[in-house]
Design a protein that fits this description.
By secondary structure, the chain is of the alpha/beta class. It contains six helices and ten strands; from the N terminus they run E-H-H-E-E-E-H-E-E-E-E-H-E-H-E-H. The chain is about 30% helix and about 15% strand. It binds zinc ion. Zinc ion binds next to loops.
């Protein structure tokens, strides 16, 4: 968690910030190299989130464990909440989990993250502050061998009040390709964090995907955070 008392209008969430796997899970039976891949986390997303948090003076809550331990952006009854296979890789440590093991993952790695988001939003509400939920993700530069042209993409649901002006602001940069609900839209049946924390409360929301190859290094993370912060600051 970063800057929890920052007074800006946005509250940043990073569901897939970390590739940390607790020791007792023994890397989920995977070689180290797999844990550095996008299957374990959103590469670069934590760095962008932390930089953005400073630039727009916003609190940020970052998930502490790999999405292979538990995916904080999935509903508790989703089959891929604790994925047995992802992007062609079987996750041995997630096969045939007992009810107790599943409950332990939820209690240790899912609930504390969402409770932290909840408490920040509630405290701001008590203080009479507006909150806009901004979920930061990163996406791979290709899928199924097909290159993704978008360096940044905004995912929205039916409420387009922020997405439309944000897309317009991002598209002022003629040298970048901006995705509007591609490759992903915001789907309350699949996504959990933004629907649970923002849609349920009637808060405005934005979900953004940065393409990973642009934000692997800290320089790229800073550059994209700056660019995105400028666009966000144009929203009224
Ligand atoms: Zn993500």
């Amino acid at each position: 968690m970063v800057g929890l008392n920052r007074p800006g209008r946005f509250v940043l969430l990073c569901d897939h910030a970390s590739n940390f796997i607790p020791d007792e899970l023994k890397n989920l039976g995977l070689p180290e190299a797999e844990l550095r891949r996008h299957i374990a986390w959103d590469i670069g997303a934590a760095g962008v989130t932390e930089a953005l948090s400073e630039l727009i003076d916003a609190p940020a809550i970052l998930s502490p464990a790999s999405r292979l331990v538990i995916d904080c952006n999935r509903h508790l009854d989703a089959p891929d909440l604790i994925p047995e296979m992802t992007d062609g890789t079987t996750i041995p440590g997630n096969l045939q989990l007992s009810v107790a093991e599943r409950a332990n993952r939820i209690e240790r790695w899912f609930r504390p993250y969402h409770d932290a988001v909840e408490s920040v939003l509630l405290r701001r509400e008590e203080q009479g502050r507006e909150s806009v939920v901004l979920a930061v993700h990163s996406m791979t530069d290709s899928l199924g061998g097909k290159h993704r042209p978008w360096q940044i993409a905004v995912s929205s649901h039916t409420d387009r009040r922020l997405a439309t002006p944000l897309l317009a602001a991002l598209r002022q940069h003629k040298d970048i390709v901006v995705g509007d609900n591609e490759p992903y839209d915001l789907d309350p049946r699949v996504d959990y964090s933004v629907p649970y924390h923002a849609l349920r409360r009637g808060l405005s929301q934005i979900q953004v995907e940065f393409r990973q190859d642009e934000i692997v290094e800290s320089r790229g993370q800073q550059r994209w955070a700056l660019r995105f912060a400028d666009a966000v600051k144009t929203l009224v």
